[in-house]
């Protein structure tokens, strides 16, 4: 567009510039894709074995150091934890090879209904799904 | 004098790519600590790419303003003098320190900078997790006094690039400690791990670019301790790997808070207060988190040293 306003020479320069820029941007996108694929192929993420009782308690203590939950429930697949401290639910779920912690009113968690062994929890910026045995909710540990 | 004859960051890009490949390999073969999660890496590298595009869009405004200020300079500093390069190295690094500190301690600038800290990993790809909204946040204005003093815009741009390239290699867990004299003067992987940590002990520390002396001078230096390994990310880690959520979440948070504020004072607090500020003090700031951490340690009978 600027080329039309400024004559042929500028149009030529602008098109070379545009081409160089496009090549650079295209090359960058390709490099990003290749590096991500390489990282995935190499498999160097942290190990995230299913949480057992000890690991779950340690994780809750680390993420909620000012809380003393009365009970801790571990998802059936070991990928998440819901702890209860009175009227508060302390929620931890796996995201990639790390865990995300959120707290919300216990009444919200208690009112959820699992289907086919899945309990989706609506949070502000995510909707983690917890694996539940027998579609019984809330579990006896937390009730 | 105006436009830099070369861009250190552009020149270093092949090195960045090779270094990331090398870090992944040393992690894979157990030669050093290095973890890469695929989606986390994708977000980091996409942020780096996007920040280059954002820089192209906003670069004209920054360059034009810098040139305008330089035309109104106090002194004329030659780009060929060694003393001028020493001076710009020190002054740019000092500017970086204050830019970085403001970017952590005031929410409006944190909104632009937070996405550099959202990775729960600390590897070389994290270094490329750069802001898209720095131009809008206006932190680049902090470098204008250098041009007003008389440093040519090209000189300032080159030094900013050198600082950015220097800071790339310190984003790694593969290097434990550098020699003592180096740790005393320069920013290192150990010092910068502390800066990226979300442990209460390590919050709001080690803002240095190249020289760690600024943190030691202004009281923000915190050493890494072996007893408490760094846990990375933000105090409240993001719930997803959505790139655009990563870029804009804090801006959206500010917008919601300002829209719901009951007075102009509250609105100003939400924008210019520390991250986590709220009128009733119901949210946590770095300050309250550190206070709680100290109280816990004291209750356990082991107050922080």
Can you describe this structure?
By secondary structure, chain A is of the alpha+beta class. Chain A has four helices and six strands. Chain A has helices at 2-6, 8-42, 53-63, 106-110, and strands at 71-74, 80-85, 88-95, 98-105, 118-120, 129-131. In chain A, a hairpin with a 2-residue loop joins strand 3 and strand 4 (98-105). The radius of gyration of chain A is 25 Å and the shape is elongated. Residues 1-10 of chain A have low confidence and may be disordered. Chain B has 305 residues and is mainly α. Chain B has 14 helices and no strands. Classes of the chains: A alpha+beta (143), B mainly alpha (305). The interface between A and B is medium-sized, with 31 and 39 residues.
Helix content of chain A: 25-40%
| Strand portion of chain A | 15-25%
- The number of helical runs of chain A is 4
Q: Mean of residue pLDDT of chain A?
A: 89
Question: What can be said about this structure in brief?
Answer:
The complex is a heterodimer of chains A (143) and B (305). With 143 residues, chain A is α+β, with helices and mostly antiparallel strands. Chain A is 39% helix and 22% strand.
